[in-house]
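Data follows
____________
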Amino acid sequence: MDYTHTTDRRARTRFPLALSVRCFDQQSRTEILSRTYDISAQGIGLLINEEVPLGAPVTVTITMPDTGEEIHVNGKFIWQKPVDAYCYRTGVELTGSCLKPVPIALRTLQTRVVGH
C-alpha cells in the first residue's frame, strides 16, 4: 500500500460547514450565490458556479441558519479549481477581519439537531 504523506499548510483549523452565502465581487460589481464547504478564522472555502478573477476583492455575506443573521466579511479570491463543468471550489482569504468559526459551527450544529 502506498501511503503518501501530505502536509496541510493551513495555519488555522477549518470547520466543514455548508452555509448559504452571497459573494459581492467588488471588481466586476456582481453578486454570486454560493455555499461554504469550510470556514476558518482567516478564510472561507466556497462552492460556486462560475470562474472568478483571482486577487479580486470580495465581500462575503454568510446567512446563519438559526436566526437569518447576516455576517459580512471582506476578503479576496486566492485560488480556484474546477470540481466539474458547473462548479468550482474557491478559496477566499479574509482581509481586515477574522471570523469566529467555533460559534458559527456550534450554532449551525444546534440548528440541525433541534430541527430534526
